[in-house]
Amino acid sequence: MSFLTLTGIQKSFGPVQVVKDFDMAIEKGEFVSFLGPSGCGKTTVLRMVAGFEAPSAGTIVINGRNQNELKPNQRNIGMVFQAYALFPNMTVHDNVAFGLKVAGMDKAAIDARVKEMLGLIHLGHLADRFPYQMSGGQQQRVALARALAPKPQVLLLDEPLSALDAKIRVSLREEIRMIQQQLGITTVFVTHDQEEALSISDRIVVMNAGRADQIGTPFDIYNRPATRFVASFVGTLNLIEGTVVDPTANRISIGDQDITLREPLGPAKAGDKVSLALRPEAGSIAEGARGDTALTGQVISSNFLGSVIRTRMKVGEPVISFDMFNAPGRNPPAVGEVVTLRFTASDLLIIRE
Ligand SMILES: Nc1ncnc2c1ncn2[C@@H]1O[C@H](COP(=O)(O)OP(=O)(O)O)[C@@H](O)[C@H]1O
Ligand SMILES: [Mg+2]
């Protein structure tokens, strides 16, 4: 049985239902991210797991025990919020010690545990500082140590990195992942940042308007998006409209060109529209590029983004973006140039909902 299970969870505030039919089973030691746009219900689900909100329907079970009737302080859950939320009038040591004092641990044991926790986040030398004397990244590491000190059975993190600078965000997310793996603690991490979710999760739940649109590994979510929403929210993607030419032969047209899909079209007749997704990194215009499928178009823009060059070309009406790695001596395609993008037919996904 899974360690943390949410079954049939619903939540309404007054007449507004913000979480709908949410089901999720998280294994012990797993790192799961809830990924979705602002307002889709991520925090609300997290708060129900922590016991700050009661579900309107459904059950929450942790380690075989139903949590619905338990108060937050009976659930043994560690939580880290976006705002650092440290006690401003307490030192780092006392912040981390707080939960242990409440639990009635004796002073020697508390000091040992605080030392261990500060070692884990490499802030042992700042034990006597106050929050205002530390950077945002340091405060968030203390918040993590404070959450982990009482050995919670589950760790919940609600957008813990979103108030930090880009560089710190990346290093701290890696640190969080390392600590999580070191402790083997079951973790739910909320974010609206797809790169963050893709880079550190065992599995991702992509949330859309209170529902889980797709649950899967980062690889699955990125490469096999189940819905139009997931396809467009996770990564940069071309959503292309094609027209069925010959359904039995899997032939479709994009703009003025016909191609054959690998994935079966399913029930369709000539003239039906079909939504297709293609990642910008899937193809290449390089001389001798491989791929069983080609689309030729005219370049309408080419943007230098640093490590990649993103080019947009027009294939009849539809516009398709593709990326190529920057290489010294390679010029981006010029606007107006006609280029041929080669890719593998199986990279073209049919989006059905
Ligand atoms: N206590 C509340 N009362 C009324 N509406 C709420 C309350 N908490 C959240 N909501 C609403 O529920 C929806 C989901 O909110 P939230 O879970 O915070 O989203 P997210 O964390 O994904 O940004 C939003 O429309 C929000 O306004
Ligand atoms: Mg939120």
Describe the structure.
This protein is of the alpha+beta class and 353 residues long. It folds into two domains: 4-233, P-loop containing nucleotide triphosphate hydrolases (Rossmann fold); 238-351, RNA polymerase II/Efflux pump adaptor protein, barrel-sandwich hybrid domain (OB fold (Dihydrolipoamide Acetyltransferase, E2P)), CATH 2.40.50.100. The chain is built from eight helices and 19 strands. The protein has helices at 42-50, 92-102, 107-120, 136-148, 166-183, 194-200, 218-223, 228-233, and strands at 4-13, 16-26, 31-35, 57-62, 65-66, 77-80, 154-158, 186-191, 203-208, 211-216, 238-246, 251-254, 257-260, 273-278, 293-304, 308-314, 319-325, 338-343, 349-351. The protein has a six-stranded mixed β-sheet with strand order 6-7-8-3-9-10, sandwiched between helices. A five-stranded antiparallel β-sheet has the order 13-12-11-14-19. Helix 2 (92-102) packs across helix 3 (107-120), helix 2 (92-102) packs parallel to helix 4 (136-148) and helix 3 (107-120) packs across helix 4. Bound molecules: adenosine-5'-diphosphate and magnesium ion (MG). Residues 13, 18, 36, 38-44 line the site of adenosine-5'-diphosphate (ADP).
Number of E-state strands: 19
Corresponding CATH architecture of the largest domain: 3-Layer(aba) Sandwich
3D shape: elongated
Q: How many domains, in number, for the residues? A: 2
Poorly predicted runs: none
